[in-house]
Amino acid sequence: MKNFSMPETVSPFLEQEELERLSQSLEKNISREEAEAFLRRVPLRPGAAPEERARWVERLSEELETNFDQETIVKIRMGCHCNENGRLEETAETFKALYQSKGQDLARFVSHLNESGAGWSIKGGALYTRMFTCECPMLERAGTSPSLTWCYCTAGYSKAFFEAVFERPVEVELLQTIKQGHDCCLLKVTGIL
Known about the structure:
Blueprint: H1 14-29, H2 32-41, H3 50-67, H4 70-78, H5 87-101, H6 106-114, E1 121-123, E2 126-131, H7 152-166, E3 171-176, E4 185-190
Antiparallel strand pairs: 1-2, 2-4, 3-4
């Protein structure tokens, strides 16, 4: 997959943590019994090789798409986001301080970030953010797919991130991903202005 870069640190419990987040999100959005049955259909062994993880991601996405409507899929996967071993909170605090240093002016904040190559924009009252690399260790050996299902966790991550930065509820829509074969992931964030 192009534009893929392994994160600096990958938890030795990657598979277990992934399953725990999935289980919690399934229970929250459907039921405990349905979650347990679903997880039995898509097992993931600890210490899985990158190719095995990639196959699991595809199978999980297919199972979600077969068994749930789009709204439920989005809720389940958004609830599965990681925090990158605490980096979400650390990075959000840094961005929050930068936003505040720019007088909480979104245009000045975005302009400053774009000086470093962020590629963000503001259009029609929404913030559009781009990510130029995918650092999801579950996708290390994944091929491209037209499905957005797996990557809705990125929207969940971004929602948690931007709510911490802007100190208000926001909505995040995932528009495209690197996993789909695009050069970047593109997200639309609303509720900031």
